[in-house]
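Researcher: Going back to the complex we discussed earlier. I've cleaned up the inputs and rechecked each line, so this should be the final set. Can you rerun the prediction on the complete assembly and write out the structure?
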Amino acid sequence: MSPIIATLIQIFFILLIAPLTTGLVCFVKARLQGRKGASPFLFYVTLLTLLKKEMVISNATSWIFRVVPFVVLGSSIALAIVLPLIFTDASMAQLSDFLIVAGILVVGSIFLVLGGLETGSAFGGMGSSREITIAALLEPIVILIFSTLSFVANSSTIDGILGSQISLSEPYLLLSVIALILVALAENARYPVDNPATHLELTMVHEAMVLEYSGKYLALLEYASAIKLTVFSILITNFLFPSTLLDASSWGVGDLFVVLCLGIVKIVLMMIGLALIESMIVKMRFYRMSEYFSIAFVVAFLSMLVALLSSYSSEPIKYHVIFSIFTVMSVVLLFGKVRLKAILRYYAFSSLLIAAIALSLIPLVKEEEITHLWIFAIFTIVTKTLAVPYVISHIGHAKKSLTNLPSFLRPGKSYFLAIILLIVTYFTLRNISIVGLIEWNSLLYTAVTLIVLGITMMIIKRNIFSQIVGLLVIENGIAVFVLATVGSLPLMIEFGIFGVTVATAYILAILSAQINDLYGSTDTDDLRELSE
Amino acid sequence: MNPIFITIPFLAAFLGSLFLKTESQVRKINLLFSFLNGGALIFYAVPFIFHARGKEISHWWLMDSFSMLFIFLVAFIYIATTIISTRYIGHEYEEKIINLRQYKLYFALFQMFVLCMILTLITNNSLVLWLALEGTTLFSTFLVGLYRKKTSIEAAWKYMILCSTGISLGLVGILLLSYGAHEAGVAGENIFSITALMESAHSISPNIIKLAFIFLFIGFGTKVGLAPMHNWLPDAHSKAPSPISAIFSAVLLNIALYAILRFKFITDSAFSDPTWTNNLFLIFGFLSVILSALMMLIQVNYKRMLAYSSIEHMGLILFSLGLSPLGAVAAVMHMIGHTFIKSTLFFGAGEILIQWKTTKVEKIKNMLTRARYTSVLFIVGILSIIAIPPSALFMSEYGMFSQAIVLYPVTAIIFFVALGIIAYAMLALSINMIFATEKNEKDAKNKAERWNITHTVMTIELIVVLGLAIWFTTSHGVSVIEDIVKDFLFIK
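Model: Rerun complete. Updated structure for the full complex:
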């Protein structure tokens, strides 16, 4: 059927479902917080009630105040028209160029800001100033995310990006999607950027701007934000599952029904996820907002960097490469940490990533090695992510005063040294040829860097716990080395090696507790009784 | 009979030591099992050593005359050490230096430690070998740190950290080697089998083999106590209970060397030329001897002196292994002789420690009057370890020098000087302890020492050394050792 009908169906679907979206979040959140909560369909009634109500508008306002609700609603609806939410290649698809989409978003927020300023009240101005700050921080991230995606998909429209079905075939695009989720949270004024449920002057952003609106105008504004939330949640799920979209030029009623049902499922799932996030984390202080956006920016930027590198080296980057990079990065971060808990957390995280490497190798190996990789991953998680950190922190923590761990180097210099080591290892490995290891190059590099970083850590850190973790990092390096070379060990041996790791950690933890008892410190420089 | 059954009596002794209630029960069960296990092992090993039984090679096990020679040594020292332990640790228990929990822990760990050494020797799987060797470190850490004192905990810490790191690097070497075999087309789990690797070594890429052997050598070399990686050795030997020092020095170091030698064979047959590995052996052997000669001069502690002497002898063995096949014969003789003499000396050191409660040489005087049996046996041991002629070590060192002076004259002379320094330093220290007198009335009143079980063991060991010295000179002895050498040395 014709693309125009497709577009119309899409708009009607979004307009119809939007109030349910907002209602669902409140409902699930209430349930998660142990309340009964209002019906998810309450928001329809709210909107209708608001439409019937009388409006109170300040005399001091100009025509802009009256235009704002329409422009904001218009921008939301425009998003619902151009973006590929249910159909790809619909009638307005060529308008979904990411710069245009970013422009539509900005028009919406600019007018909202103007509306907030219009009445001259203190709250409106405060909310506007906050909103425009956030919008300014958000803009470069949106551009980065979509330029990465369009670079990889070779198309500048979001429709084209989704149509080429690239998003998960290239693992680094997962980073872009993560950044997109972070952006979507901020754009829709949800946690941790804004609290949609408060009218507290210290925290509100979006609510402060619409504070002066009432009756029909308020209904329009609320409706607009509900539409925006719906659009973003469907868009993100579409990035993860691009095959759930219908082609606008050829579709049947049966397909349409399935896809609409899927759309509802997507919204329900996303809203449950959102409610979970909002129940677990708290709103950030406004001055820490820059950190949140830096994280989003770095994630988006990393994705772009890897995309560029991969196209430059004309070598496809697979999941295990991404996980290896993360493993090395978490060990480098571990390098500069001084608190035992932080060190153990980073160690556990890097071990978890090694398990992820093993799992991501599954599609690439022969049939009979798959079970080995599963066993390897499960053993790694059980022993190195859970048992070893528990053993060390349990025995080490029974004795207090382990928070301050001395080192020969300050954290900054440690990071510098770690990065130099990474570079040196890279060039050394380039010059040593090991036959047949081209395919698993990144794994070999990871293994060797982990071993080198572990040894360096044992040398430069003066603390006994750093030495233990250094030894454990070496063992992690060897685990990656197994994956890079022989692939799998006999089951009994694998079990034995993991057992040895736990036993080593246990014995060293006991010894360090005894050293701490006898010497009153955990500084290896104090171990000088035997220097004849 | 499947060799895995040997684990059962060891585990029984382990559990018995842990769960029996009183000191005498633990002592009896350990003596019983040590005679049982040790006797069975010796009985099993002797036919292999004299080639009355041929090699037995299976998927998991590798038993030839070389590994069985080591089994014999381990079994002998195991029995001797258990006897001495009941005397030494029992004495410390009576003096309340250690409590019953530590007493039981000592014997339990000791049994597992010996089991790990035996598994290292009879396995044909490189990874099981690695696990067992790492197991020796894990089980013996608390044996070194038995005394919960600053110094012993520090020694245990150094021992554990250095050896674990070293052996981890050894694992990298094993994996690289297996990977090379995998690339060369060795099938399935055979890539971890030592004998399969020996057979297919020539097809493995030389690049990988070289890299792998360096990792293995450095890694296991840490456990042997070779020169730049030796730091843990004097500390651990001087702070561990004396029977443990004895078993460390007499067999544990040799076992790490055994692992290196197995991989040396693979490397050599890959190059079909032993020169490369031999050079590595020569360099590290030389360094170890020189280092211990320098350190020996400043020793004030008799147990540390013995520990440095162990480094020296490991260096000597490595050096003569690197010389030539004839040097290897000398090296095997040296290993056997060193095992018996060094354990005798550490047993003697334990006896001195019991009576004087110090390891400082300067505080020990009048040994000849206060401890006549110990001092005589100790000085005989010292004379044997510095290779004064009737000793078995004289035979081996003579064989080594006759090779070295031809091949590397300058190095051989430096060696001579180094050995001279070591002999001087060891004699100077022990003569000071034994013959120096101090006019102190109290000492003279002390009762003369009674003959005890330690002296019996020491005497038996010294007699064995004398017998070995005579046997090594006969053609039968030399031919047996030569046959053993043929089992582990790659000869072009």
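Model: Worth noting: The longest strand of chain A covers residues 87-88.
Researcher: Good, that matches what I expected from the previous run.
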